[in-house]
Design brief:
single chain, 443 residues, alpha/beta, Aspartate Aminotransferase, domain 1, Aspartate Aminotransferase, domain 2, 14% strand, binds pyridoxal-5'-phosphate
Length: 443
């Protein structure tokens, strides 16, 4: 094998065939999906697979109740609606997350407010939470980012002190724990996604977990048009008692998620083993910063993130250019790397323009009329910006990939870091790193 970098015409270290795709389909999937087809029941809020998934997920997470939904995003919106977030309320979330952690507030006519992240965990920095609370704040949405729990104790304590609801965005953290307990069981409501990328996959779908009977009952109504069901006849009465939506899931995704749940722990263990191995080895390369997991957490590595530190690698140029150069060189070596979020969420055009419903200034205008101004200047989130400048996702830590692939990935890192000058010479090449859709079961 030539040691010339593939970006400069050398031979790549890794091939696409070295990667195996996610999710893993087993006979359990075929059996449960066939159960649906054989039953002839394909939908229904209390249909057998949906109900079984709700029982099994509540038992797994350790909550009293669970509701399935059509997506993680709808579970988040349902949670805000269930706890009574109103127009003009503010909802605080993390600056480094997926858009839905914030847009769920807009969907409830509330205003998202962002808090910067901790530079090691990439989760909301609890020491900056209190400064973001105003008289309008109603809820806080900590995000368990990339499979790692947010630092919940201080967040829960601050929320309690200020009378705020806590909605956990656990859409990336199925099976992750904080101080020995599974996330999604700490807040008023926990929310999960079942999309094809996630550690627990139903194709699409979501889960809403709670210990509260009140939020459960509200959730049931909100999930299905706000429509009441007659207590005696169990028939829908087509009398909406509250504002609701159509967020029901269906039997095929629920059956797939149930079958995948049978393998969640073993598949998470593979992610953890792959990640721990990569981290131990990558930490030896000056300029590579593997992900950090606090000792009281179990990180389930929905995404495996590394950061690049140019000065530590002996390069003193622009940090973003250095990341781009290394990312492109690794990608040309056949390593599936690439960014997920490219900017802090508040830097997105939606927040810069503050144009919401129908292109109007709602919901922000509601509070502006009271003299409140919202400023989403990205300069307020320097740690999230630093992360977005310097990180890349190393794809493929999911099962059934194992040590063989990890070793090839490590070889590629060593190769690139032994010739950073060449990588930097090619920083402007027209190369677009990232995983193909098929790696995550997408068409
Ligand atoms: C995936 C995800 C969601 C949304 O889930 P969908 O099922 O795609 O709607 C919300 N928050 C975070 C952090 C996510 O990663």
């Amino acid at each position: 094998m030539s040691s010339r970098l593939a970006i400069a015409g050398g031979t790549p270290v890794v091939t696409r065939d070295d990667y195996q795709n996610w999710p893993i389909i087993t006979d359990d999937d075929r059996r449960l999906v066939n159960e649906v087809l054989d039953s002839g029941i394909v939908a229904g809020g209390t249909a057998p697979q949906v109900s079984a998934l709700e029982r099994e997920w509540a038992a797994y997470i350790g909550t009293q109740h669970c509701l399935t939904t059509v997506s993680g995003t709808s579970a988040l919106h349902m949670a805000l609606a269930a706890v009574g977030v109103k127009p003009g309320d503010e909802v605080i979330t993390s600056a480094f997350t997926f858009l839905a952690s914030a847009s769920c507030a807009l969907h409830q006519n509330a205003v998202p407010v962002f808090v910067d992240i901790d530079p090691r965990t990439y989760c909301m920095d609890p020491s900056q939470l209190e400064a973001a609370i105003t008289e309008h704040t109603k809820a806080v949405i900590p995000v368990h980012i990339q499979g790692l729990s947010a630092d919940l104790d201080p967040i829960l304590a601050i929320a309690k002190q200020h009378g705020l609801h806590v909605i956990e965005d656990a859409c990336q953290a199925h099976g992750a724990t904080y101080k020995g307990r599974r996330v999604g069981s700490f807040g008023d409501v926990g929310t999960f996604s079942l999309n094809n990328f996630k550690n627990l996959c139903g194709g699409e779908g979501g889960l809403f977990t709670t210990d509260s009977e009140e939020y459960l009952n509200k959730g049931v109504l909100i999930r299905c048009f706000g429509d009441e069901v007659d207590e005696v006849s169990h028939r829908r009465v087509y009398n909406a008692s509250i504002l609701g939506y159509m967020y029901r899931n269906q039997e095929l995704p629920a059956a797939l998620a149930r079958a995948q749940l049978l393998h969640l722990d073993e598949n998470n263990a593979v992610r953890i083993a792959n990640a721990d191995y990569l981290s131990a080895e990558l930490a030896k390369i000056p300029g590579v910063i593997p992900p950090y997991c606090p000792p009281d957490c179990r990180h389930v590595y929905f995404m495996y993130n590394v950061r690049f530190d140019a000065p530590a690698a002996g390069e003193d140029g622009d940090r973003r250019r250095f990341r781009v150069a290394v990312e492109k060189a690794l990608y040309c070596e056949g390593v599936l790397v690439g960014q997920w979020q490219t900017m802090p969420v508040p830097a997105q055009d939606l927040f810069q323009s503050q144009l919401g419903y129908g292109g109007s200034r709602h919901p922000w205008a509601l509070n502006e009329a009271k003299g409140v101004r919202y400023n989403y200047d990205p300069a307020q989130f320097p740690v999230a910006q630093m992360l977005c400048d310097t990180y890349t996702v190393v794809h493929g830590v999911h099962a059934p990939n194992g040590k063989e692939l990890m070793d090839k990935i490590l070889s590629a890192f060593h190769k690139v870091f032994s010739d950073l000058g060449t990588a930097l010479d090619h920083a402007d090449d027209e190369i677009y790193p990232g995983a193909d859709g098929k790696l995550y079961g997408a068409g």
